[in-house]
């Protein structure tokens, strides 16, 4: 019955991915609405990711059906709080503290639901195919969040927040029957997986984070800032669409991650050869698809080796993914002054390092 847990949590994962992507694109609009510096808004948005990286391993191992329902309820309440904050008449006292608290709650709830869904997927008969299907919902959420942010904001600033609220409510409803058929046993302890198991997703996301950060500055060398941002959005949206297709048709049938990592390194070198938008769209699409395939197959392998700690291992894998994304983007920002293509060289280096690591057995 594990597929019922996966299906129950799919709406909240997709809705949160939509909102997370939309919030990043809404940063300037949020700053004006809340009368906060853009840096503070960005810090609050990023806090949700950092909290997810920390709280997933702390809480997911001891998760029960009742606590999972509480996490979904927290996700709903946090989204309602964000809507109320955006609709408030005039700046609210301690606005930054309120926004930060909302994002911390959202990040905690998201970490719990993702870890439980990944562990349930990895416990199915065909774990790789199940994990691939699990990623389709969040991928669709991110793609729609990137594509619809502009039209939705023109109608109302709260519309991009609603998918997370609706998704959490739908998952809470679906979870009732699923949890009764398959209670969630607790996994005691906080022991992390072995270092090599965490290094692969961490380095892959370092490569993706560095490559994504480099897109805008590279395009800004040839296009106005607004146009460069629009093309960057197209690149990211195309990448998420390819990711969904890869998980639907390629990941379940793939048997090795070495070719995917080689493709990831090659794709991240394409912007060094040419900064044309068509090349960047192709590079982002190939890199995102290759990274997604690598991560899904690696997670399935890690959990299969130690099924008694599936949820805890899934939580640690999620933490390494979020940490890698942040580290890769931060390092890319540091090397960016050297040359506009420096982030892509750094990203390709991460991919090649991962390829070398994967030659060793887990």
From TrEMBL:
Keywords assigned: Membrane, Transmembrane, Transmembrane helix
Organism whose genome encodes this protein: Paracoccus marinaquae
Residue ranges the record marks as coiled coil: none
Keyword Transmembrane: yes
Protein name per its UniProtKB record: MFS transporter
Membrane spanning stretches: 12-34, 40-60, 72-90, 155-173, 194-213, 225-246, 253-273, 279-296, 316-335, 341-358
């Amino acid at each position: 019955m594990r597929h019922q847990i996966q299906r129950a949590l799919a709406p909240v994962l997709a809705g949160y991915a939509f909102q997370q992507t939309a919030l990043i694109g809404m940063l300037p609009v949020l700053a004006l609405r809340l009368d906060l510096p853009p840096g503070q808004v960005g810090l609050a948005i990023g806090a949700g990711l950092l909290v997810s990286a920390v709280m997933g391993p702390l809480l997911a191992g001891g998760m029960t059906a009742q606590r999972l329902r509480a996490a979904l309820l927290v996700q709903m309440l946090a989204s309602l709080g964000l809507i109320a904050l955006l609709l408030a008449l005039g700046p609210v006292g301690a606005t930054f503290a309120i926004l930060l608290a909302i994002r911390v709650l959202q990040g905690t709830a998201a970490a719990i639901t993702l870890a439980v869904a990944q562990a349930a997927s990895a416990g199915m008969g065909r774990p790789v195919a199940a994990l691939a299907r699990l990623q389709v919902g969040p991928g669709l959420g991110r793609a729609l969040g990137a594509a619809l942010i502009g039209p939705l904001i023109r109608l109302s600033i709260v519309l991009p927040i609603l998918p997370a609220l609706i998704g959490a409510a739908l998952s809470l409803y679906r979870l009732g029957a699923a949890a009764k058929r398959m209670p969630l046993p607790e996994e005691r302890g906080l022991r992390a997986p072995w270092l090599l198991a965490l290094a692969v997703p961490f380095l892959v996301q370092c490569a993706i984070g560095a490559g994504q950060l480099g897109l805008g500055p590279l395009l800004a060398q040839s296009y106005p800032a607004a146009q460069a941002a629009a093309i960057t959005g197209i690149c990211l949206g195309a990448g998420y669409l390819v990711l969904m297709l890869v998980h639907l048709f390629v990941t379940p049938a793939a048997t090795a991650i070495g070719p995917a990592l080689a493709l990831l390194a090659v794709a991240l070198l394409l912007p060094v050869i040419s900064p044309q938008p068509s090349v960047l769209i192709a590079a982002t699409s190939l890199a995102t698809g290759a990274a997604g395939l690598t991560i899904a197959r690696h997670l399935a392998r890690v959990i299969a080796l130690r099924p008694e700690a599936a949820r805890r291992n899934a939580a640690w894998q999620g933490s390494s993914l979020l940490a890698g994304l942040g580290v890769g983007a931060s390092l890319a920002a540091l090397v960016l002054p050297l040359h506009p293509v420096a982030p892509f060289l750094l990203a390709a280096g991460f991919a090649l390092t991962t390829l070398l690591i994967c030659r060793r057995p887990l």
